């Protein structure tokens, strides 16, 4: 009895692990908890505090994320000082729930992969919070906006810090909720409300993949924590691993807007621009890539699922680039480009050990330069009465010099101009893809050329050429609170490539992604870089021929090629969904409703009325005449008597 | 002495009673016929008690008498009440409790 009680007591005290345990948080436990707690607290105060916090809500919301960034930096420097094999911190918080043999401990896992995500989420997040102070200045619901942003940051941090698939699921749903709330933030616009619902519903499809995947992981390994699953994956059968891998890929497709669940991302641009920058470019949409890289111990054992990942990534990177070429809405062009760049990351993640580190490298680099460009687009919209049509811009480089320069840095980074961050990260992905699979590599190379085309088109239509804006539009530079984040992000776009110096990121991530033999191309990487640069240059040149030399009409031309028309309609993603999913679902629902009315309801009502009719006949026996009852009584008694006689004589 | 005459008499009395219950309309007469049937039953019980030489039948007859007495009390009270409210002792008139 006593020993049981002691066991219980120690189990209760399990929230505080001994400090000497290897991998324990030690002095870093406090920042590790604070990094999530601060934005969560900010969201709680702003949401519960109501109108009383209106005056200073945006400042608190920004301060919590800045605090969170400071903690991330503290943690990062903390583990940099440790030997390579000790760069992992675990901190169990409490047992979330326990059912039968399944115990889910809510714990935090800080390792090199989480470290980079933490810096990206809190760093870019803090800059976007600062930017939003200016961008949302005239919005009466600004406090609520910051509350949702804080909620998002907290949920995203739970997603990347959790040490258990169930914890990841918690964060996964949290960011989905925040994304829904923020896409539909301008809820008075029916289009925004519809876009929010669409994003939510399509994300649910991906979430089915995640919940089934986690369920299958538990069914197979009887645990869901990363540590324990990774130790067991070598024992499971290939079929189960493929199933888990494909389910996790479905989850990633939903969250990261990969084919075939890509159609929500373009509509998600209905949200305020800082939301597009933070959630739908830099962080949340990369959660799918995180999930795949984090689950490398699953994908290591299934070539089929890994190939599926790479193929999905390649399809999406081409589709996104195609859509980006055709859109006139600056945010939708950038959204197409986001799809395309995440396609690169997913492709890299699908290449296995050789690609994981480059997927994360491109993810971090993209997070900085795409956030930069989205915020730049927001700054342009801010100066042009919230017009998003690039055909109404033109010649903005003189009116908005800071926005122009910073945007140009992002532009040079994304097309892969030598020396900028995107050059290093995209180059490595294309090089690895060519080495692992020639077809996918060539598609990625083509994608790089198209990227050069559509981004140049965007630059030319927005900042160069003749001015095409309306007379009542007076483009002006945004306030400092908006331009300073742009400058910081532009600097990151220029110098982000430093992470690859001496293969630092690859070595840093090796404890998580594992190390293995990669294939090598027969030619030198320098030749590949040259080829990529030439392909990009061709794309840029074509864009210059088409959009730089000619006058751009204010109205979009209607007699366009089928390619452009398909791109303008998001490659008919909605139409395909309508035909393949929405239509059949509606018919199924109508069929089920008819079945319910005719068969189920009919059966129940029919039985009831049959019994009612029968009783109407039967109750006629109760005629109220006592003597007829007496006759029935006598008849009955006589029958019983006869029966008795018959039985006794038989 | 043979018990057949007693049993025949009992059967005749029971039949008269049953026919009276089924055919007469006046509640008092119906009631008397019920009493006749009960007493026919009593006669049969006592006859069987004598045949078997035990007291069981005689005791059962006492029970029947007690039940009959109680029944008379309740039954007459009901008939009285119905007559007071409806001014009729016909069993066919009291036919409201029906479908």
Question: Strands, helices and their partners?
Answer:
The complex is a heterodimer of chains A (650) and B (99).
Chain A lengths: L1 H11 L16 H21 L7 H24 L8 E11 L2 E9 L1 H24 L6 H20 L3 H19 L6 H32 L4 H7 L5 H18 L7 H5 L5 H10 L4 H8 L1 H4 L3 H24 L3 H21 L2 H31 L17 H15 L5 H16 L1 H26 L16 H16 L8 H10 L11 H24 L13 H7 L4 H46 L7 H24 L1
Antiparallel strand pairs in A: 1-2
Chain B lengths: L3 H20 L3 H26 L3 H31 L13
Helix pairs in contact in B: 1-2, 2-3
Summarize the structure.
The complex is a heterodimer of chains A (650) and B (99). With 650 residues, chain A is mainly α.
- Roughly what fraction of the amino acids of chain A lie in strands? under 5%
Q: What is the tally of helical segments of chain A?
A: 25
Mean pLDDT of chain B: 92
Number of domains of chain A: 1
The percentage of residues in β strands of chain B lies in under 5%
Oligomeric status of the shown chains? heterodimer
Query: What are the secondary-structure elements of chain B, in order, as H or E?
Result: HHH
Q: What structural category do the secondary elements of chain A indicate?
A: mainly alpha
Distance between the termini of chain A: 72 Å
Write structural notes for this entry.
The complex is a heterodimer of chains A (650) and B (99). Chain A has 650 residues and is mainly alpha-helical. Helix content of chain A is 71%, strand content 3%. Chain A is globular, with a radius of gyration of 31 Å. The model of chain A is unreliable at 1-22 (pLDDT under 50). Chain B is mainly alpha-helical and 99 residues long. Chain B has a single domain (4-86), classed as Helix Hairpins, CATH 1.10.287. Helices cover 78% and strands 0% of the residues of chain B. Chain B has helices at residues 4-23, 27-52, 56-86. The model of chain B has no long low-confidence stretch (mean pLDDT 92). Chains A and B meet through helix 25 of A and helix 1 of B.
């Amino acid at each position: 009895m006593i020993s049981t009680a002691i066991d219980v007591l120690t189990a209760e005290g399990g929230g505080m692990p001994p400090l000497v345990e290897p991998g324990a948080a030690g002095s870093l436990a406090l920042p590790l908890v604070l990094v999530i707690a601060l934005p969560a607290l900010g969201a709680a105060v702003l949401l519960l505090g109501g109108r009383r916090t209106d005056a200073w809500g945006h400042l608190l919301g920004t301060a919590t994320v800045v605090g969170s960034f400071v903690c991330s930096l503290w943690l990062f420097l903390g583990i940099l000082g440790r030997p390579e094999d000790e760069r992992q911190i675990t901190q169990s918080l409490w047992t979330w729930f326990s059912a039968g043999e399944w115990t889910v401990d809510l714990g935090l896992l800080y390792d090199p992969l989480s470290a980079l995500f933490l810096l990206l989420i809190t760093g870019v997040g803090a800059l976007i919070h600062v930017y939003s102070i200016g961008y949302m200045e005239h919005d009466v619901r600004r406090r609520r906006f910051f509350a949702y942003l804080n909620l998002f940051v907290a949920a995203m941090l739970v997603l990347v810090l959790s040490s258990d698939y169930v914890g990841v699921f918690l964060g996964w749903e949290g960011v989905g909720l925040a994304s829904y709330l923020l896409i539909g933030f301008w809820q008075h616009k029916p289009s925004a409300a519809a876009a929010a619902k669409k994003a939510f519903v399509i994300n649910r499809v991906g979430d089915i993949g995640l919940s089934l995947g986690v369920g299958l992981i538990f069914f197979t390994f009887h645990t869901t924590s990363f540590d324990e699953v990774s130790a067991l994956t070598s024992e499971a059968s290939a079929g189960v691993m493929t199933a888990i891998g494909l389910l996790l890929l479905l989850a990633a497709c939903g969250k990261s807007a990969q084919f075939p669940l890509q159609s929500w991302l373009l509509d998600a641009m209905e949200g305020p621009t800082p939301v597009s920058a933070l959630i739908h470019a830099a962080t949340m949409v990369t959660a799918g890539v995180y999930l795949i890289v984090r689950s490398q111990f699953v994908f290591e054992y299934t070539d089929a699922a890994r190939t599926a990942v790479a193929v999905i990534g390649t399809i999406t990177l081409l589709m996104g680039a195609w859509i980006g070429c055709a859109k006139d809405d600056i945010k939708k062009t950038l959204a197409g480009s986001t799809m395309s760049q995440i396609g690169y990351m997913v492709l890299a993640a699908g290449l296995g050990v050789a690609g994981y580190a480059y997927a994360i490298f491109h993810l971090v680099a993209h997070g900085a330069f795409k956030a930069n460009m989205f915020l730049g687009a927001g700054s342009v919209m801010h100066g042009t009465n919230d017009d998003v049509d690039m055909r109404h811009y033109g010649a903005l480089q003189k009116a908005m010099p800071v926005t122009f320069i910073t945007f140009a840095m992002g532009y040079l980074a994304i097309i892969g101009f030598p020396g900028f961050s995107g050059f290093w990260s995209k180059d490595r992905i294309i090089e690895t893809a060519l080495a692992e699979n020639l077809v996918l590599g060539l598609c990625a190379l083509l994608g790089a050329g198209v990227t050069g085309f559509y981004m140049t088109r965007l630059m030319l239509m927005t900042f160069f050429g003749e001015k095409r804006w309306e007379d009542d539009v007076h483009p002006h530079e945004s306030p400092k609170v908006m331009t300073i984040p742009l400058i910081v992000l532009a600097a990151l776009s220029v110098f982000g490539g430093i992470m690859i110096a001496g293969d630092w990121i690859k070595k840093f991530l090796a404890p998580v992604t594992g190390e293995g033999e990669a294939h090598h191309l027969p030619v030198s990487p320098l030749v590949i870089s040259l080829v990529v640069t030439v392909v990009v240059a061709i794309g840029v040149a074509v864009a210059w021929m088409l959009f730089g030399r000619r006058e751009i009409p204010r109205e979009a031309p209607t007699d366009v090629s089928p390619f452009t028309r398909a791109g303008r309609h998001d490659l008919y993603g909605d139409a395909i969904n309508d035909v393949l999913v929405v239509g059949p679902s509606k018919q199924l629902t109508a069929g089920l409703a008819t079945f319910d009315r005719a068969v189920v309801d009919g059966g129940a009502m029919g039985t009831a009325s049959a019994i009612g009719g029968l009783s109407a006949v039967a109750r006629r026996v109760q005629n109220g005449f006592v003597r007829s009852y007496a006759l029935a009584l006598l008849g009955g008694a006589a029958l019983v008597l006869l029966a008795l006689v018959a039985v006794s004589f038989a | 002495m043979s018990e057949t005459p007693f049993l025949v008499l009992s059967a005749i009395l029971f039949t008269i009673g049953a026919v009276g219950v089924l055919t007469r309309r006046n509640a008092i007469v119906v009631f008397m016929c019920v009493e006749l049937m009960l007493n026919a039953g009593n006669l049969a019980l006592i006859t069987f008690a004598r045949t078997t030489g035990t007291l069981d039948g005689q005791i059962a007859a006492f029970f029947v008498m007690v039940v009959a007495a109680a029944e008379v009390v309740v039954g007459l009270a009901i008939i009285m009440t119905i007559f007071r409210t409806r001014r009729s002792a016909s069993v066919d008139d009291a036919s409201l409790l029906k479908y």
